[in-house]
């Protein structure tokens, strides 16, 4: 599992939570699917169980998971998660477009170039 990047400045629990968000939003993890136990994931990642517990708690607060006492953590069935992510990305894009325009550049031109580069990266 490539959950942890030690060169990343974010705390490990945020990296774990971010990776699980990605897996949930892309459908790799299905609704009601059980996640590894805190101890098991901590052993796999060679990290402290408290770090994994903090990541799971964060995911639960944000609506990605639910926990069943004595059974574990499960992926929450929630269609609004993708809509929330779209809104978050749209906000980031609006800020970026404003910054591009403030520099006197054409946002469409930069977007097209970035999209082409991303497609090339996908082919490699």
UniProtKB/TrEMBL annotation:
InterPro entries: Tscrpt_reg_HTH_GntR, WH-like_DNA-bd_sf, WH_DNA-bd_sf. One of its GO terms (molecular function) is DNA binding. The keyword DNA-binding applies. Residues 10-78 form the HTH gntR-type domain. Pfam families: GntR. Keywords: DNA-binding, Transcription, Transcription regulation. SUPFAM superfamilies: Winged helix' DNA-binding domain. PANTHER family: HTH-TYPE TRANSCRIPTIONAL REPRESSOR YTRA. This is Transcriptional regulator, GntR family.
């Amino acid at each position: 599992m490539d959950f942890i990047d030690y060169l990343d400045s974010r705390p490990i629990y945020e990296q774990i939570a971010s990776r699980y968000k990605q897996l949930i939003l892309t459908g790799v993890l299905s609704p009601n699917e059980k996640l590894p136990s805190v101890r098991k994931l901590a052993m796999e990642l060679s990290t402290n169980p408290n770090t994994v517990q903090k990541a799971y708690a964060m995911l639960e607060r944000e609506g990605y998971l639910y926990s069943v006492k004595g059974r574990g953590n499960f992926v929450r069935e929630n269609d609004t998660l993708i809509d929330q992510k779209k809104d978050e990305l749209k906000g980031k894009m609006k800020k970026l477009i404003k910054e591009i325009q403030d520099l006197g550049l054409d946002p469409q031109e930069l977007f097209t170039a970035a999209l082409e580069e991303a497609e090339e990266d996908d082919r490699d």
